[in-house]
Amino acid sequence: MITADTVWREMGLNDGEYASILQTLGREPTQTELGMFAVMWSEHCGYKYSRPILSRFRQYREAQAAGALENAGHIALDKDLGIVFKVESHNHPSAVEPFQGAATGVGGILRDIFTMGARPVAILNSLWFGDLDDARSRYLFENVVAGIGHYGNCVGVPTVAGETHFHPCYRSNPLVNAMAVGVVPLRNLAKAAATGTGNPVIYVGSATGRDGIHGATFASTELNEGSESRRPNVQMGDPFLEKLLIEATLEALATGAITGIQDMGAAGLTCSTSEMAARADVGIEIDVRLVPLRDPSMSTYEIMLSESQERMLCVAQRGREREVLSVFERWGLHAAVIGHVTTDGVVRILDAGAIAAEVPAKALTDNCPVYHLEVRERPPIESAPRPVPEPLCAAGENDASGALTCGSALLQLLGSANGASKEWVHTQYDRSVQTQTVELPGSDAAVLALRGSEKGIALSIDGNSRWCRTDPFIGAQLVVAEAARNVACAGARPAGLTNCLNFASPEEPARFWEFRSAVDGIATAAEAFGIPVVSGNVSFYNETAGEPIWPTPVIGMVGILANPDRAVGAAFQRGDNGGQLALVSAFPAGAGPVSCGEYRSVICGDEGGPLPLIDLEAERRLFELLVAGHAEALFASCHDCSSGGLAVALAECCMLGRVGAAVVLRPEPAQTSVAARLFGENSGRVIVSLKNEAGLARLQQLGEAHSIVVEWIGTVGGEVLRVAIGAQTAFDCAVSQMQAVWRRAIPAMMIRAQAPTSASECVGAR
Fold this sequence. Notes:
Elements: H1 7-10, H2 15-25, H3 31-40, H4 43-46, H5 51-54, H6 58-66, E1 73-76, E2 81-89, H7 91-96, H8 98-114, E3 119-129, H9 135-155, E4 159-166, E5 175-185, E6 200-205, H10 215-218, H11 239-254, E7 258-263, H12 268-280, E8 283-287, H13 300-305, E9 311-316, H14 321-330, E10 334-342, E11 346-351, E12 354-360, H15 361-364, H16 406-414, H17 423-426, E13 437-439, E14 446-449, E15 456-462, H18 465-470, H19 472-489, E16 493-502, H20 509-529, E17 533-539, E18 543-544, E19 547-548, E20 552-561, E21 580-585, H21 597-604, H22 616-631, E22 635-640, H23 645-657, E23 661-665, H24 674-679, E24 685-690, H25 693-706, E25 709-716, E26 720-725, E27 728-734, H26 735-750
Parallel strand pairs: 3-4, 8-11, 16-17, 23-26
Antiparallel strand pairs: 1-2, 2-5, 3-5, 6-9, 6-10, 7-9, 8-10, 11-12, 13-14, 14-15, 15-20, 16-20, 18-19, 21-24, 21-25, 22-24, 23-25, 26-27
Helix pairs in contact: 8-9, 8-11, 9-11, 11-14, 19-20, 19-22, 22-25
């Protein structure tokens, strides 16, 4: 029995929630029961603050009402195969133990995929850190990337795409979002429900240890100077064991003997038993002394709350349990019948036959308290301390006076942490294992040609916290549009999205308003584009000592390619000297305000300014045009204009292809600045190269049909990127010079000072 008056508060429960537990049970809870309620009623597991807002996503609302929320979401690839995908955060664990925090984040999201019966084929990630001139940020960055690479490379799943951002607001609270994608025969989709009274409940995978206890509770609180002591809440991963678990699970599912299966992730055995039982409106009884343990002295409380990695819980058809057990045993994994499905709707935990916990399954899941938090709207953040400086048009990098020129501004952007090449990151990942990767990291989207289908998929993951800080509703729409535009640049029809919603404390009204507004923005854009939101994750309390991160919703997008052989990347093709360049725009030139966010940040050190114009219907027409152009094999390259604007996008195309270009932009009205023309981040713009003038003419016809502006802007060729505005040269930069700045920036930043050799600076250091 509970003896300490406030023990529930230490577990993360409030007094009202404890009173509700007393009412539900009709008695005081045991320590194990209280721990089970604490983890399942945490925001991380129970979504007690976010659930009412997430109902704005149609598919989430419908699945929640039907009790059919699964490990991950899926869309149909063709009549036989489906694509399963999801993104999740591992932010807090990565802040206190970056290598294992990131590694186990990859392992957990992979299990969400193969518990659906899908073979994992791709990993993506979205990473956000403090400035690299800070030793602690370098330490986190280095070890997070190493952890992702270690786990993904060892388990044999390629890391095919991602993004990495740097800003001081993430110094104490980095964001580590991992996305996984798998392929499954639609007829073999597995469910996470414990169906079949009397069916055996089977534990498989790694033995249970003391790592990760109360990890879900840890993820539902702010970081602080004492968070270093929470390192035991971070799990330890074994990717080689996970590889065995993937193969064994898919083989066992193929027998048809398994009726339900779920990963033991956050909250471990507590979550998997209660959620599987609640989905099927049944009960589950297990005996913890039948659970494979690393230490037999572990208590019932520790066993039920452990978040040891590489573990699954499944329900088999009665009489076929030996068939399932033998599969896992053959792969050298622990496998044991630990209980059975009951009819009474209760999760009953025995310890060597003695009852240690008896809790209605739905009390832990469906009846998790839901809070409608106070909301305080704040105005959009548009102002900036000083105006954007106007660069001088001059051939070469600088003029004689050393003043800021268009060329020097471009090189500063390419040499900044956010604008630089991320090869330092993605070259640590195996990108081609499984030999299905068609387009490697560096372009707008990864492309996979999938075995067993004539179709392929394009994958992208995107976030922009500057936009979402300025206006979370519009900013979130812009992020969805960019993610969809990226897969369309590869020739894919945007077909489904997942989201990872990274925000500060929901208990602060203005922060909760940011969350609600961003969800509304995602839902609005998804509905306008006809793209279902099939899965997602919420990560709150991303702040340290009262310093919040910027609102950072991250969108994972999956597009379907009718013909992956026709996919193209962002690189201009060196063999296409004389190839035609076109700027494809959803809006006419000069429409709406011009955002110069990255230019302002790098050149001025300021944040702010207006957001780009957003027109969801125009964006949708742009996607259709791009897919149509790819279907006719018009494009030699295709690249979205985003951070840093047109000049940076052109430079990236040249550097990736190791070839120059001659670009002539039409003069704009006098009120349009050179900075806005070159570095403005207008949405809905794509640079394409075409092999000849006939291709350009056909693209212009398609543009007219889709009400999209197609403007000729120059040709591919040479060793220099030369950009003129009318008759005046804005800049010319040698491709080799741009490459040197772009590729060397991150490695140089990483060796500026010795990174710390321990986690002593990990949390709360100033």
